[in-house]
Design a protein that fits this description.
Elements: H1 2-10, H2 13-30, H3 36-49, E1 58-61, E2 65-68, H4 70-80, H5 84-96, H6 100-103, H7 109-114, H8 117-128, H9 133-140, H10 147-156, H11 162-174, H12 176-186, H13 190-193, H14 206-223, H15 228-243, H16 247-268, H17 275-278, H18 281-309, H19 319-322, H20 330-342, H21 349-378
Antiparallel strand pairs: 1-2
Length: 379
């Protein structure tokens, strides 16, 4: 009873807010089925760490004294000290991706590059609003539409807003089917969305599939050395998939590894979601800026496609540009659905998938570029 009374009297209004946020995330995961593997652990973790005197953060052992609780320990070892969890997740993601649609139409890589505009536009806006450069860069990377990259960049740059950035990144990834149609319709007409694109895929040789992850890793390493850990592990996972001699390891990476790391990463990131760190005015700005980054990315991809159409005989459906974000395969599905809404006979999925996997590569390279540039500017 003593502990109960102490806990109730020690509970702050900020902690009550975090309980509400945790409940909303759990509701979205279970009832609305929005990225449940991510939002459910994050939501439950937000409740767990905001209980007064929570043993998940600190616990006292007889004869030893206060030691780190399980979530704090996982956070320090798996994220803060080594960034191991988000990096290991890239192996599984790479093993899940088929780069065939991109290799059969290599120009789609341009849409992946164009759709990263939101990252750098948002960094500029955040800096102009007064955020320190390391925080501004961490906020901007939300536009990568890639939760692990957002966590990694914000952690490496020692941002004060790791928890808020993780929540924003994963929440907006889950809301891609709502955010992207709004952004796309802002800059397209129904006639443009109805543009048909014939799909005549070129055959991709096994050698091309094997060389692709190696070449991309080497190219990224020379252009943005800080991206090697990100791109390298993504491409290593893909090489395991394409080698066809490590099928059991590929299956393990795609299922067991991804599920395990996603589960641990979701609940572990909650260690940075303590009420005193998250419930503040800056968090609201971060959520707004993160939303802008997503919208800017989608609009930039669409506008780039429309620019190419000025010089191209075979018109590109401009929505393909919006699929250049990293949210795979949600963004590709959004483009396919919107294309069929404009014309029931329009089939854009494979084009959108190619741009979408290009966005996977471009987002981690963009994260590496940020990690390479920002520390030097802070010196």
């Amino acid at each position: 009873m003593n502990y109960l009374l102490q806990g109730i009297t020690a509970t702050t209004w900020q902690q009550l807010v975090m309980f509400g946020i945790g409940a909303i995330l759990i509701y979205l995961a279970i009832s609305k089925k929005l990225e449940p593997a991510l939002l459910l652990p994050i939501g439950f973790g937000a409740i767990l760490v905001n209980i007064p005197f929570s043993g998940a953060l600190h616990t006292t052992l007889p004869g030893i004294g206060e030691v780190a609780g399980i979530l704090e320990w996982l956070y320090e070892v798996g994220i803060q000290a080594s960034e191991a969890m988000p990096l290991l997740l890239f192996i599984g993601i790479g093993a899940m991706i088929d780069f065939g649609p991109l290799l059969s139409n290599p120009k789609l890589i341009l849409f992946g590059a164009a759709a990263q505009f939101g990252i750098f536009a948002t960094i500029t806006i955040a800096a102009l609003l007064g955020f320190p450069l390391n925080d501004a860069a961490s906020i901007g990377i939300i536009g990568a539409a890639d939760g692990p990259t957002s966590i990694l960049v914000s952690q490496v740059l020692k941002s004060d807003y790791v928890g808020a950035i993780a929540v924003a990144a994963y929440s907006y990834m889950a809301l891609v089917p709502i955010i992207q149609p709004f952004a796309i319709k802002l800059v397209t007409t129904k006639k443009e969305r109805a543009i048909r694109m014939p799909y005549n895929p070129k055959s991709v040789s096994r050698m091309a599939r094997l060389l692709f992850p190696i070449i991309v890793t080497m190219f990224a390493g020379y252009v943005a050395p800080a991206s090697v850990s990100l791109v390298g592990l993504l491409m290593f996972g893909n090489l395991i998939r394409e080698s066809e001699v490590l099928k059991s390891l590929s299956d393990t990476a795609q299922h067991v590894l991804v599920n395990l790391i996603t589960l641990l990463l979701g609940i572990t990131i909650a260690a940075s979601m303590q009420a005193d760190k998250l419930v503040r005015v800056e968090t609201m700005f971060i959520m707004i800026l993160g939303l802008l980054a997503f919208i800017f990315d989608s609009i930039a991809g669409v506008l780039f496609a429309k620019l190419l159409n000025l010089f191209s005989k075979n018109k590109i459906n401009p929505m393909i540009g919006a699929a250049g974000i990293s949210a795979f395969p949600m963004s590709a599905r959004v483009v396919q659905r919107m294309g069929q809404e404009a014309d029931p006979q329009n089939h854009l999925l494979m084009h959108a998938v190619g741009a979408n996997v290009a966005g996977q590569i471009a987002s981690v390279i963009a994260g590496g570029v940020v990690l390479g540039l920002v520390p030097g500017m802070l010196v």
